[in-house]
Amino acid sequence: MHPGWKIAALAVLGMFALGSLVAGAPYLESTLPGGLPFGNALAAVGLCAIAACGVATARRGVMRHVAFVALFASAAWLPVSIALAGNLTLVFSGARGDAWIAWSAGVAVLSIGALALAMLQRLVACVWPRHTATSSRG
């Protein structure tokens, strides 16, 4: 089965999460069982969806490994953020807030960058198939 529907579903999920966070949707402040704000969970799911879309798009080789690193970092974003904050609402004080901003920005850049590079890799493979036909497995 062609993975196109998976890529589309992951892209839609990532765009929904990003759009909700940028727009500041009111449902982001609702609390999930256990005390975790829905916005924090949606941010984590959105980062993972973007990175997983990069994994699904990337061909085998170095780019696929980079995409998996982005997916791992995205999956670790929420637990690391909670550990840095010391609370589920991700309220920071002092230098930990600066560290969290750097961590969050790095994960976001890595996830979006891995997806962009995977898409570029696929585009190059379509435009110049003879130059990228080193493996028939990808």
Tell me what the structure shows.
- It is built from four helices and no strands.
- By secondary structure, the protein is an all-alpha fold.
- It has one domain.
- Helix 2 packs antiparallel against helix 3.
- The longest helix is centred in the last third of the chain and has 33 residues.
- It is elongated.
- The two termini are 15 Å apart.
- Keywords: Membrane, Transmembrane, Transmembrane helix.
- This is SPW repeat-containing protein.
List the helices and strands and how they pair.
Elements: H1 4-23, H2 38-57, H3 62-85, H4 95-127
Secondary-structure content class: mainly alpha
Give the strand tally.
0
Query: Biggest β-sheet: count, sense, barrel?
Result: none
Give the low-confidence spans: none
Q: What shape does the CA trace take? A: elongated
Helix count from the secondary structure assignment: 4
Share of residues in strands: under 5%
Output mean pLDDT.
87
Distance between the termini: 15 Å
Query: How much helical structure, as a percent, in the residues?
Result: over 70%
Q: Would you list the SSEs in sequence order as H and E?
A: HHHH
Radius of gyration: 17 Å
Number of domains: 1
Task: Give a quick set of tags describing it.
single chain, 138 residues, mainly alpha, 70% helix, elongated, membrane, transmembrane
